[in-house]
Write a structure and sequence with these properties.
Length: 155
């Protein structure tokens, strides 16, 4: 009999057993890597949103427009929620775009504070407002957030 070139049944069964043992861990690793990639992408998108919102706030504070400028931050509710001209209304299209990925933002504006971020009670020292933008995003472990903060001199 000449040399046989076909696989035997035993060789085929051994190969299938080896593949069935190796495949589940490989699939699990791919799933974990995919989840980590999505989490990283969402964190980056949230960072972009937080930075974009802060850039708008910086532009508003630097504006010569009578309804903006540093004093606009004094009434945070009006600055943020006024229909049409409030920050949230002006950023609606941006917020809607990021909402498609489950990412949202919130803005917190402090009262007057000193340069170290505390209220000193001295009107000459308490001339700053701290603004924090928080962008929340979905993560495989729940919800995480990215924060961007800045202080603005009011006087």
């Amino acid at each position: 009999m000449t040399g046989r070139r076909a696989f035997t049944l035993l060789e085929t069964i051994i190969a299938m057993v080896m593949i069935s043992i190796a495949l589940p861990p490989i699939v699990a690793l791919m799933h974990d890597a995919s989840r980590a990639r999505i989490d990283a992408a969402n964190a980056e998108r949230a960072s972009w949103l937080a930075a974009a919102v802060m850039e708008h706030i910086c532009a508003d504070v630097a504006s010569a427009d009578a309804s903006l400028g540093p004093e606009a931050l004094a009434d945070s509710s009006a600055y943020l929620t006024t229909p049409v001209t409030g920050l949230n209304a002006r950023l609606q299209s941006l917020a809607t775009f990021y909402a498609g990925w489950g990412i949202s933002y919130s803005v917190t504006i402090s009262g007057l504070v000193s340069s170290d971020g505390t209220v000193s009670g001295d009107a000459d020292l308490d001339v700053f407002r701290s603004v924090e933008v928080e962008a929340a995003f979905p993560d495989s472990g729940g919800t995480r957030s990215v924060n961007v903060a800045r202080s603005f001199a009011i006087r």
